[in-house]
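Margin note from the TA: students keep mixing up input and output lines. Inputs are the sequences; the output is the structure of the whole complex. Example:
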Amino acid sequence: MSASETSGNEPPAQAINYSSVPDQDGHFGTYGGKFVAETLMSALTDLEALYHRLSADPAFCAELDEDLAHYVGRPSPLYEARRLSAQAGGARIFLKREDLNHTGAHKVNNTVGQALLAKHMGKRRVIAETGAGQHGVATATIAARLGLECHVFMGEEDVRRQALNVYRMKLLGATVVPVTSGSRTLKDAMNEAMRDWVTNVDDTFYIIGTVAGPHPYPLLVRDFQSVIGREARAQSLDQTGRLPDALVACVGGGSNAIGLFHPFLQDEDVAMYGVEAAGHGLETGQHAAPLSAGTPGVLHGNRTYLMQDEAGQIIETHSVSAGLDYPGVGPEHSWLKDIGRVNYVAVDDTQALAAFHQLTRVEGIIPALESSHAIAYATELAARMEKEQTIIVNLSGRGDKDMHTVAEIDGIEF
Amino acid sequence: MSRIAQRFAQLKEQGRKALVTYSVAGDPDAETSLKMLHEMVARGADILEVGVPFSDPMAEGPVIQQAHERALVNRLTLTAVIELVAAFRATDNQTPVLLMGYANPVEHMGYAHFADVASAAGVDALLTVDLPPEEVAPIKAELSRVGMDCILLVAPTTPDARLVKIVKQASGFVYSVSLKGVTGSGHLDSNVVAEQVARIRQHTALPVAVGFGIRDATSARAIAAVADGVVVGSALVAAAAEAGQGGPEAAVAAAGALVAEIRQGIDSLAS
């Protein structure tokens, strides 16, 4: 589909079958697709074919479910945050506890799935990009378990900021490769991972950490992460007797948000809010909110909303949360924004930090700074809702990795 | 007939192979770039491939990545690249010029607008690394409208069935990527290249140029023996950057000297 065709992005005249996207070329309306060098095209085609076969194979699904249950520790609880709800003063807030997964975040749902694909393809080596280090750790973890060689690309700036996660990856046997090109952050790590993949495409599987990248990655990462929403849907029915009124999740690349949202997309009465990082404030330009303040373009294999300047150069982003500090977003989110199914909003550094402290103090749960953006918006939203209504927030990760960042902001030295 | 088709036809008549030289527009500044383009033509380049600087050049090795970064320091963006070509055309209306870059700057400018201004400036073709045949149709339509060629890549990993589809959509010439890797990689194997070129020729009458990993007269000669053209990029960019420490004239001279050396290597085939 061409950039000039807009048919895919107009409000739907009738109900959309959300499982029918992406189309066979990976397009969500005008977004998505496969924008990569020719050398990688056949690897993507092979991956697509294998995934179509395996995702319909009961033995593969059983193998994945087994790993999710006994290695990751699923299902994760749906926890009612009563004291937080009382402080917000409105709707009941429930937390989907992805922070309780092995390795401490939702990322592992996807790495377990992709590593199984790598194993079935006979690849002996996996690579990954990482920003905060959570996806890198989740990849190094599963590589250790399967005995795969693992290289994690990480911007030099992030290597410095996330020293603890770098050490965790090394302990797990991974090689952490500091990336010194460009802005030396997540986007550059992804460029470098693509360069490695194009060089070692025969024996290497690229485990992309979010619902971005070329088709079929946005599709398969969505599928692996949708376990979050499937569980949450059943848990909500079981614990409250009904579906939630609203869902809230933070959006960097957007994998935890798609994971929660996707199984509810057909439920028209469930409102959805994707929370981007407003950094120092949308008006300052120093943020990481392409859906709120960006324009469509092509980066890292897909067409999607991007942070770019008037010449189409990708610009540097800012967020207190390294995991949201990315100039693009998964193409499905771009489509969901344009058709109006999901509301995209933004929360700045200060609001996220306040929510980080609030949840820690009133519920005894230390959230990741990424997830703190979702908590901040959910408390605002709850205040505008009725007491009998419910909100599910994806608590996508735990905050242990952010101790240094928060302490530094609070002026504390260890 | 397009400048590119004309150039390949002339060379074929003369029994010579094409030397395609790559440099990044605006590396290290627009003025030096312009001088370098003329110098490379004077020293034996047949076709100029001009890199459009991009913040995220995913297919490039370190040498060309750094060239993109140097060019972007001066904010040398797509509009300025097109102006550079227009300035080049003021004194050279013969040498084909193709722009090589990434989809986003072109998409941001708008495909139709790009085609209009680029063709008006005398750009002959566009090669976007990250627009495979699956995604290239909309821009190709605009390029065709203004008579510009759309250069497509064939890789060592491209299966035959796919190769057939690619060459059907290609125009100007087919760009055969010599190896699995980024630009400037060091593991060129001329036997592999020969096989791939033969595979391409089974399905198209278009000229075939080979790029990635060709760095000197010897490797250029080996590739020219089996292809219609060789593309030299990283080696030229590196030579200019190194000499450029001594000023822009030195950079231009170094690039020119390497072009002359490679030209000789290629032409020694004919004799």
